[in-house]
Amino acid sequence: MWKSFKNGAGSLSYAIRKKIPIILVLAESIKEEWPLPIKLALEEKRLLIVTACNDKVHRINHQSAYERNEIILSLANHIIIGYCRPGGNINKQISGKANVTLLHKPHYQPAAPTFMMKAADSDVMTYRTSTKGGEIFLDIKQDLCGQEYLKITQSKHQGNKDFHRETIFINKDEILQFKQELDRAIEYWGLNPIKQKQTLRSKREEYGNAYLPWEKSADDYLLRLYEEGKTIHDLTEIFERNDGAIRSRLQKLGVKLK
């Protein structure tokens, strides 16, 4: 018997618990790690997992799903489909196939669905940071097949106790690429704290008081020396600050530089 599950982690779990023999045909590459129930089913030879996708296909897409269905259609002796949407992709793909049986009539309309709570993906680690615009949540989660991913949610207060949320999902194998692009944005805006520390350190190696606050006694001493005729160059050596810092401080103290 061939069984294909579309987003069917719940159906797969049920079939494994009932020890129903399964051939799981994937529309993506085979994962390196599986949760324990699937490992046990594989060891007991109740489950066979196959795929025609290479290791670069990490997510199901329209093309991989179509090719997966074609494999099933070509290998299965008899396929029974309880329901597929008239005019939908599967309905079009199985059109004219002699080994397919549809249980519903052409004009059959399914009853209103009964919604059931889906088992939530489990949290592995959660981070939260507050910003001027709201809150940012970073959740490392694990889906029902044991695959870990990062969920980033930005929550902004819209007033009247309403919040607007935007969410993106990043697979574990995509995180380094995401970090590289994030580093580029940080570099573009000049926000790299490591480079800022390196710049500050190099400035202080050249000018010992670089970026340190000015004290009133230093201001008074600076004005007196300038009025006595000390040059900007002389003042940079005395105060261990660069040319721009000396000029800026003198101007802030009301001196009109020549």
List keywords for this structure.
two-stranded parallel sheet; 258 residues; four-stranded antiparallel β-sheet; rod-shaped
Order of H and E elements:
HEHEHEHEEEEEHHHHH
Gyration radius (Cα, Å) is 33 Å
Shape: rod-shaped
Beta-strand share of residues: 15-25%
Poorly predicted regions are 1-8, 115-119
Helical fraction: 25-40%
Mean of all residue-level pLDDT scores:
78
Tally of contiguous helical segments:
9
**Beginning-to-end CA distance, first to last residue:** 92 Å
Overall number of strands? 8
- What class, by secondary structure content? alpha/beta
Order of neighbouring strands in the sheet with most strands: 5-6-7-8
Major sheet, described briefly? 4 strands, antiparallel
Q: How would you sum up this structure, described in words?
A:
The protein is of the alpha/beta class and 258 residues long. It contains 9 helices and 8 strands. The protein has helices spanning 9-17, 36-43, 62-75, 89-93, 175-189, 193-206, 216-227, 232-239, 243-252, and strands at 22-26, 47-51, 79-81, 100-102, 122-131, 134-142, 148-159, 162-171. Strand 7 (148-159) and strand 8 (162-171) form a beta hairpin. Helix 8 packs across helix 9. The longest helix is centred in the last third of the chain and has 15 residues, at 175-189.
